[in-house]
Amino acid sequence: xxxxxxxxxxxxxxxxxxxxxxxxxxxxxxxxxxxxxxxxxxxxxxxxxxxxxxxxxxx
Length: 59
Description:
Elements: H1 2-13, H2 21-32, H3 37-44, H4 48-58
């Protein structure tokens, strides 16, 4: 656990925004409400249902 905490601190010091899966998924779902979300996901070929499933498995 200490190694993980140390890594998180080092990432933060380097300017990396550290987030957990739930926070990221909340942002994704908020962005999904945007009128442009469908176009963006289509352009990226992202099936968001796969990502939701992956987050639920790790929660």
